[in-house]
Specification:
The protein has 3 domains: about 1-55, no CATH class; about 95-325, Hypothetical protein af1432; about 330-400. The protein is globular, with a radius of gyration of 22 Å. About 40% of the residues lie in helices and about 10% in strands. Helix 2 (about 100-125) packs antiparallel against helix 3, helix 3 (about 130-145) packs across helix 6 and helix 5 crosses helix 12 (about 315-325). The longest helix has 25 residues, at about 100-125. With about 400 residues, the protein is of the alpha+beta class. It has helices at about 40-45, 100-125, 130-145, 145-155, 160-180, 185-195, 205-210, 215-235, 240-250, 270-285, 295-305, 315-325; strands at about 1-5, 15-20, 35, 50-55, 330-335, 340-345, 355-360, 370-375, 390. The chain has a 5-stranded antiparallel beta sheet with strand order 8-7-6-5-9, with no helix packed on it. It has a 4-stranded antiparallel beta sheet with strand order 1-4-2-3, with no helix packed on it.
Length: about 400
C-alpha cells in the first residue's frame, strides 16, 4: 500500500517509492529507496516536502496525508499561437507498414548523432549541417507514420547520451504531430531534443554512470551540464535561440523549483516546457545501470500527479492524450486472460487501443493472431466486455522476438 507522507514524519526503515518531484531532480536518481539513517531523512527534507512510501516493503507511517488527485477540466487552448496549430497530419499507411523505414531512420540517426557528439566532445562546437541532415529523414518518416517512430523509440532503452538523444528526438516528433506544429517548428523541436544533454559530454563518466545515489557534490556537478550545453551551442554559428532556450530551460520547473535559474510559469519558453516533459518521461521509462525501466502507464500517472506543479498542466494533458495509457508495442493482458501487444492508438479513446492478440485465454499461441480494435469491438462473441487488465513486462509468458506485432 502506498501512503503520502510529509518529510517531517519520515523515520528510518520506511521504503520510498515516489517523490513529490521527478527523481532526476534529486540525488537519489531512481525510484525505490530504503531510508537507512537520519542522513537519508535530512537529504529528503532538503529536496522534498512529501514522499510516497510502500508500507509492504518498509516501516508503516503513523501520520500520512490524504490528498486525492482531481482530474483536470481545462484544455490546451493558448500555449501556441493559433496559426501554428493548423497542421493536420493523416497517416498514409498502417503503423506496421512504416516500421522498416522508421527503424532505418532512427538507427541511422543514432549512428550520426554518436559521431557528431564524439566530435563535439573534442572540439566544443557542433556541426550544424550534420545535425540538420540527421533530423531530415526523421521528419520525413514522422510524416509517413508517427506511431512507427514511437514504437522504435520505445523499443530501445539504454543509458548513453547518444541513445537518449535519439529517443528524445523521436518522441518530440510524435508529440509535435499531435500538437499540429508545422514542419519548421517540428525541426526546431527535434534538433533541440537531440542536443538537450550535449553538455553531459563535459561531465565525468564516473558520475554519469554511478550505480547508486549521488553525493551533494556529484549532484551539483551533473547540474552543470546545462551550463556546458549552452556554452557549446553559443560556440556554434547558426544555432537558433529557440534551441538554446530549450537546452537552457529543460530542467526548469513550472513552480520555480527547477534549475539553473529558478524560472517559473510563463518565464519558461514553450519549447522548454515541452522538453521538460519529454525528457522526464524518457528518463523514467529507460533502463539504466542502476534500475530497470518504469512502466509506461506508471510514468504517465506520475506526470499527471506533477501537472501544474513541475510541468505545464495543459501540456501534460496533451502528452497523455498523445501517448495513450498503453504505449504502442506494449504487452498487455486482457480481463479474459488473453495476451496481446498494442499495435495502434485510438485518438478518440486512448484507453481502448488496437491489440494484436498473441495468446488465448489459456496462454496458448493463436494459429492466426486476431487484431482487435477495442474502441469498436467492445464485447466478445459471448457479450462480455473486452478490457485491458494490466500491462506486462517484456518476455512475460515466454513472449519474445518470435512473438512480434508483425506476426
Amino acid at each position: 500500500m502506498e501512503l503520502k507522507v510529509g518529510t517531517q514524519n519520515l523515520i528510518t526503515g520506511m521504503y520510498i517509492c515516489g517523490l513529490d518531484r521527478p527523481w532526476l531532480d534529486t540525488p537519489f536518481l531512481a525510484p525505490g529507496h530504503l531510508i537507512n539513517d537520519d542522513n537519508d531523512i535530512a537529504e529528503l527534507k532538503i529536496h522534498c516536502n512529501y514522499v510516497y512510501i510502500d508500507t509492504e516493503r518498509g516501516v508503516k507511517a503513523e501520520i500520512h496525508i490524504d490528498a486525492p488527485v482531481t482530474p483536470t477540466q481545462n484544455y490546451l487552448d493558448d500555449f501556441l499561437d493559433q496559426d501554428k496549430r493548423r497542421a493536420v497530419y493523416r497517416d498514409q499507411k498502417p503503423p506496421l507498414d512504416d516500421l522498416p523505414a522508421a527503424k532505418t531512420a532512427l538507427e541511422t540517426a543514432f549512428v550520426e548523432i554518436a559521431q557528431i557528439m564524439d566530435n563535439t566532445g573534442r572540439d566544443e562546437n557542433l556541426d550544424l549541417d550534420a545535425i540538420k541532415a540527421t533530423v531530415r529523414p526523421l521528419l520525413d518518416s514522422m510524416i509517413g507514420n508517427v506511431e512507427a517512430l514511437s514504437w522504435m523509440s520505445s523499443a530501445r532503452g539504454n543509458e548513453d547520451i547518444q541513445k537518449q538523444a535519439t529517443d528524445n528526438c523521436a518522441l518530440a516528433l510524435v508529440f509535435a504531430k499531435h500538437l499540429g506544429l508545422y514542419r519548421e517548428d517540428r525541426k526546431v523541436l527535434a534538433m533541440g531534443m537531440l542536443l538537450l544533454d550535449v553538455g553531459k559530454l563535459k561531465i565525468s563518466a564516473n558520475i554519469l554512470n554511478k550505480p547508486g545515489s549521488l553525493t551533494k557534490t556529484e549532484f551539483a556537478a551533473t547540474k552543470k551540464h546545462v551550463e556546458f550545453g549552452v556554452k557549446i551551442l553559443r560556440n556554434t554559428s547558426g544555432i537558433s535561440e529557440s534551441i538554446i532556450g530549450m537546452v537552457q530551460t529543460h530542467h526548469e520547473r513550472f513552480d520555480g523549483s527547477g534549475y539553473p535559474s529558478g524560472l517559473e510559469g510563463e518565464q519558461i519558453p514553450v519549447c522548454g516546457l515541452i522538453a521538460a516533459i519529454i525528457d522526464t518521461y524518457n528518463a523514467m521509462t529507460r533502463k539504466t545501470l542502476y534500475r530497470g525501466a518504469i512502466a509506461h502507464h506508471k510514468v504517465l500517472q506520475e506526470l499527471y500527479r506533477w501537472r501544474d506543479k513541475y510541468f505545464h498542466g495543459e501540456l501534460v494533458d496533451q502528452f497523455l492524450q498523445c501517448l495513450g495509457a498503453y504505449s504502442t508495442g506494449e504487452l498487455v493482458e486482457m480481463t479474459s486472460g488473453e495476451v496481446g501487444i498494442v499495435i495502434a492508438q485510438n485518438p478518440g479513446d486512448r484507453l481502448r487501443p488496437t491489440v494484436n492478440m498473441l495468446l488465448d485465454e489459456l496462454k496458448n499461441p493463436w494459429e492466426v493472431n486476431p487484431r482487435i480494435d477495442l474502441s469498436t469491438n467492445r464485447v466478445d462473441e459471448n457479450g462480455i466486455e473486452r478490457n485491458i487488465l494490466r500491462t506486462l513486462k517484456p518476455g512475460a509468458y515466454g513472449i519474445g522476438e518470435s512473438h512480434s506485432a508483425c506476426n
